[in-house]
């Protein structure tokens, strides 16, 4: 670990830039993940997060959770592109860190699992910093928050040959799309339209109900427990490729139309992964910024 070279954050205008296209969870997916995480922060973590955020977002982490997608078009940040995903061998349906976590040049640790480990390690030094804490730590916070969302999108741990479903062109109901985009955005947007009057807050309330005292509540302690972050992150990646094989890729061929049956059977998995990502991001931030860090190991 530790081979990344972290640059300082340019807050003047880069945070405000936007680009078109969905590169990870959509805006809706990342917003939900970060809103869930922020709602679960302890007081000390909540204060640290607000200090690290630029003033104009008024302490709302979700306003900047899409930032790593928006800045990757700039030369300074092009090196971060491989950090959004993991390419795994076709049809093996498995993840191995040493085998799969590298960029096209073969440089190790350059994948979304490696990024989570490294940015967490950087944030663990937050309390040791002097002067303006926003310099590198803001960037680390935004990358970490985004990448925890990414690793929970099953097709961000997908097959190499189809680029996590990006090259599997198909139709989502009547619209042209691809399999990756279906999981990034189409399922979420369709759910918002069909069940939530296009109101993201109504969907957020439903997710919160499911993990507080609903269908997922018994599983939450296992989602939020982690003594060794490196092992936990590897497990999250394995969960994603497992879901990708059993639910994302299964029964799908290029050129086909995906509609109600696919939507109804896959939507619960999309929503569960968004909730898991938020709960686990909160766990990391509470560990990083809280008093008790004993037993929490960030790197291998």
CATH superfamily: P1 Nuclease
Describe the sheet with the most strands.
3 strands, mixed
* CATH class category: Mainly Alpha
Examine the secondary-structure arrangement and name the CATH architecture: Orthogonal Bundle
Distance separating the two termini: 7 Å
Mean of all residue-level pLDDT scores: 90
Low-pLDDT ranges: 1-22
Strand content: 5-15%
**Which oligomeric form is depicted?**
single chain
Portion of residues within helices: 40-55%
The secondary-structure element order is HHHEHHHEEEHHHHEH
Radius of gyration: 18 Å
Class computed from helices, strands and strand pairing: mainly alpha
Structure report:
With 300 residues, this protein is mainly alpha-helical. It has a single domain (20-289), classed as P1 Nuclease. It has 11 helices and 5 strands; from the N terminus they run αααβαααβββααααβα. The strands form 2 sheets. Strands 4-3-5 form a 3-stranded mixed β-sheet. Strands 1-2 form a two-stranded parallel ribbon. Strand 3 and strand 4 form a beta hairpin. Helix 2 crosses helix 11 and helix 10 (229-248) packs antiparallel against helix 11 (260-289). The longest helix is centred in the C-terminal third of the chain and has 30 residues, at 260-289. The protein is globular.
